[in-house]
Design goal:
The chain is of the alpha/beta class. The chain is 35% helix and 25% strand. It contains six helices and seven strands, in the order βαβααβαβββαβα. β4 and β5 form a beta hairpin. The longest helix is centred in the C-terminal third of the chain and has 17 residues. The chain starts with a strand and ends with a helix.
């Protein structure tokens, strides 16, 4: 299996989050998986401007090149993508959202009806399954988790995929990996 892990931790001081993700990374590798790991705070990331250039002028690629070029390549080659972030004011980090927005280039601008909803056409034959791993803040409540989970469920639907789970980073590494793969 191939995995892409997107570490949306925006704070170098939050070492516990990074340590948990590194444990998951090493566990997945120990099972013979290939893992692409992106520590977003260390990358050159630009916001999506909504210009639609990735659909019209340079299909599949953003007009404003940044490190999401490699992220998109890794994602489309993966079987599963793990979006991981501490919760900040009830939502994952802006770093994770920046990357998520730039994934729009991985689908076509054309629309089709799916279960009476408008969704984009596929650009590729294969899209990875999605998992959300979060770290609760002191003010994170169950409503926040439900809202974020539903947002990622809807994202997965338009991404021609499915959300496997939405789980707290504090679950044991082996349980997170089991939920990903049924080890």
């Amino acid at each position: 299996m191939k995995y892409t892990i997107l570490n949306g931790n925006n704070s170098e001081e939050n070492q516990s989050f990074d340590e948990h993700l590194n444990e998951l990374l090493e566990y997945l590798k120990s099972k013979g998986n290939e893992v692409f790991y992106h520590e977003l705070r260390k990358l050159n990331l630009l916001y999506c401007t909504g210009c639609w250039g990735c659909w019209v002028k340079t299909p599949g690629e953003c007009l404003f090149p940044d490190d999401t070029i490699q992220i998109r390549k890794d994602i489309i080659r993966s079987d599963k993508v793990i979006f991981a972030s501490p919760m900040i004011l009830g939502f994952p980090s802006a770093l994770l959202k920046m990357v998520q927005d730039k994934l729009i280039a991985l689908v076509h601008p054309y629309i089709e009806l799916v279960d009476n909803e408008c969704h984009h056409f596929k650009r590729y034959d294969h899209y990875p399954e999605i998992a959300l791993v979060y770290q609760r803040a002191e003010d994170t409540d169950e409503d926040d988790i439900e809202i974020v989970t539903n947002i990622y469920r809807r994202f997965a639907l338009n991404f021609k995929s499915k959300l496997i789970f939405s789980k707290d980073i504090n679950e044991p590494t082996k349980e997170l990996a089991n939920a990903l793969n049924h080890y």
